[in-house]
Amino acid sequence: MESLGFLAEGFIALFHRGGESFMGMVTGMLPTLIVLITAVNALINIIGQDRVDNFARLTTKNIILRYTIFPVLAMFFLGNPMAYSFGRFLPEKYKPAFMDAAITFCHPITGLFPHANPAELFVWLGIAGGITQLGFSTGELAVRYFIAGVIVICIRGILTEKITLYMLRKSKSKLLEE
Predict the structure, then answer these.
(1) Using one digit for the tens of pLDDT, what is the confidence trace for 44-70?
(2) How far apart are CA 66 and CA 142, in angstroms?
(3) Are 83 and 74 in contact (CB under 8 A)?
(4) What is each CA distance from 24 to 14, 18, 31, 38, 161, in whole angstroms?
(5) What share of the chain has pLDDT > 90, as a percent?
(6) Which sequence ranges are marked TM in the entry (predicted)?
(7) pTM to 2 decimals?
(8) Secondary element (H or E) of residue 43
């Protein structure tokens, strides 16, 4: 009987710790995220939706920009999962590669801009906690991770585009005519 009591106490303690962690985020992280989201939306409204749309179209004409700047802007301004809606600026034949790049960038952006993908924040905070315990800067880690992420999304985007175009040519798809 004593072991059942021990298990029950341990089970409840797990949820108490989760509640403490949640309260820490409510008083620390969530206000920051709300302010960041508000600032990004205000910036879009100040610039103007049409200008943002035109800029997005310009950044998709070049293959390097299409899989670096474009997904970074999508994740920064819209966050996950709304960032994928930036695909509307692309012809169908480029959408799979954009999705690959944008999805791949969900985590690397979190260290610098946690509003972009709050769901990945738990992963980042775990890594940052370990780095802090070792006495290293989380800022440097965030910048390096961001840069590595941009390089990886460019490579993945270009490779996925090449594979998609190959498959479309092989199937003689009309999407190639766009």
Answers:
(1) 889 988 887 788 778 888 999 999 999
(2) 23
(3) yes
(4) 16, 10, 11, 21, 42
(5) 37
(6) 22-44, 64-84, 142-159
(7) 0.70
(8) helix 29-47
Q: Which amino acid type is present at position 157? A: G
| CB 94, CB 161: distance < 8 Å | yes
Q: Which amino acid is at 131?
A: I
Place of tokens 């949820």: 15
> Do residues 83 and 71 make contact, with C-beta atoms less than 8 angstroms apart?
yes
Q: Which residue has the tokens 């370990």?
A: 130
Maximum alpha-carbon separation in the chain: 73
The DSSP code for 16 is H
The CB density around residue 30, as the number of other CB atoms within 10 Å, is 13
Of 104, 36, 37, which Cα lies nearest the Cα of 72?
Answer: 104
Token couple for 135: 């006495």
Q: Give 141: exposed, middle or buried? Use CB within 10 Å, 0-12, 13-18, 19+.
A: middle
CA 43 to chain centre: 19
Q: Of 114, 137, 141, nearest to 25 (Cα)?
A: 114
Query: What percent of the residues of the chain are helix, what percent strand, and what percent coil, each to the nearest 5?
Result: 80, 0, 20
Residue with tokens 């620390």: 28
Give pLDDT, residue 29: 66
